[in-house]
Amino acid sequence: MDTNMEKPYAVGIDIGGTNTVFGIVDARGTVVASNSIKTGAYEKADDYVDEVCKHLLPLILENGGVEKIKGIGIGAPNANYYTGNIEFAANLPWKGIIPLASMFEERLGIPVAVTNDANAAAIGEMTYGAARGMKDFIMITLGTGVGSGIVINGQLVYGHDGFAGELGHVIMRRENGRLCGCGRKGCLEAYCSATGVARSAREFLAASTEPSLLRAIPAEEITSKDVYDAAVKGDKIAIDIFNFTGTILGEALADFISFSSPEAIVLFGGLAKSGKFIFDPIQKALDENVLAVFKGKTKLLMSELKDADAAVLGASALGWEVK
Amino acid sequence: MDTNMEKPYAVGIDIGGTNTVFGIVDARGTVVASNSIKTGAYEKADDYVDEVCKHLLPLILENGGVEKIKGIGIGAPNANYYTGNIEFAANLPWKGIIPLASMFEERLGIPVAVTNDANAAAIGEMTYGAARGMKDFIMITLGTGVGSGIVINGQLVYGHDGFAGELGHVIMRRENGRLCGCGRKGCLEAYCSATGVARSAREFLAASTEPSLLRAIPAEEITSKDVYDAAVKGDKIAIDIFNFTGTILGEALADFISFSSPEAIVLFGGLAKSGKFIFDPIQKALDENVLAVFKGKTKLLMSELKDADAAVLGASALGWEVK
Questions:
Q1: Could you give the ipTM of this predicted complex?
Q2: Minimal CA separation from B171 to chain A, in Å
Q3: The pLDDT value given to residue B4
């Protein structure tokens, strides 16, 4: 992290399908000011960027002005680090290619870098969190989907085109695999995302007549949070669902270790907070499936980024590195 | 490649289970002198290293002496780049941990680096072959086993422990997978190595009564070369075996692309030379299985290293980089 007293802050902007959160962060990872707007309220990308700047600029001015900001990092779906563009993001209102980095640079006069949200989380974890000091680790984000950010030799892996690290879409079940949102079958994301867990719940409930607390909820409304709440109360089907989910994720992680032999795999996102219900079956399946030469070497860790700040922190970490 | 007129050569040593081949290579990838000894003839690692040096030193002296050599690169099974050791190599006569780099350095006074054979092949391809100028590619070696060398941001991926890049051991068939030499089931190597192809031949012949040229060979003696020879003559079962093998490899490559989004995947080794019989089904399965964002972006290439020299060239390429 290249910081100095003259530019003591970075800005992080996290663009989600629903909300855009942004904040000013110091070198120790403290969010000194933040705000948010609704992403979906702006049909035109220009109007959207104007609105973010309208709310961000006062925060910057309160903290010493533009000259105190080292850089701006943006985490967004389908954001390409090399081009500074968002490209064909299905969950955002603006279609085609949006030159997001240059749009912010023009308005604020501060250098801007963009990357996808999972990569931003990985940089955040390396800068402020559980992966501090690590040169080789993999970040897995378990949210609505499954994302990943891969760090090798201390550098984020962008690949030749800027889109590397789509580990949510390795195929885990080639026979009768579930249909994934990407159009293919059997992807990790179809099982180990929050939506995958909800889907498992419906399948498990339909496949047996065993009593379960989850039967009190209309099947289509069950969420991964409901499954967690039931597991905490000792519900067998809920615990089975976590075992099923964690086993597939542990199998996947064992393969990822054969690729880059990371010092740690860091789990992030709502599902990662299901504690031992998800952690224990992941660790068990990882140990059972990993190649002998790697056994017991890669740590399985939970993210140490504070929840409310994680997205802004991750994006801001990229801001320190902008040239 | 850091070369200069004062040190115009690197030495490459390729240690295989049967033969050890070594040579002196110039900056353009020409092997100017080479020789070999039998690896298995020396019970003690010290005697073995003495013997290599005894045959290598005259070649060095004929080409200007030790001061003309930039460095020595060694490719060997289970060789660890970070430590300079060979560690528990099942196919070599010396058990436990052998400090190979320092053993050669002490005898020759030239800096030495070691890595496994697939990594050496990747560096060779980047220095002299099909991956010249590429910063992101994956080398897959299809031999007795399946090995890999991964290059990201222009650097070989060693992982936190020096053993990264075991792509032959990702699991491709989780249900009823074949037993692999590593003790697990369903590994890529159990299907897409030369021994995997021979095994497929026995399975395919046993599963049908269809006529095949391969039926003239005792089942246990069939090699992947026999399958190739039969395919060239239009033998349907032989062609089916290549389709089966190539499909599994193409599925695997599609997953590897989701990891590091390489500019190219370079195939190396005997099986890679089966031409369209293996190339076409790999490309087809890759196209059918790759995530949309990567479709059509990653080139599938054959190694451009000359066969006889490939192992020495690969190892020598590491010699240019030794510090």
A1: 0.92
A2: 7
A3: 55
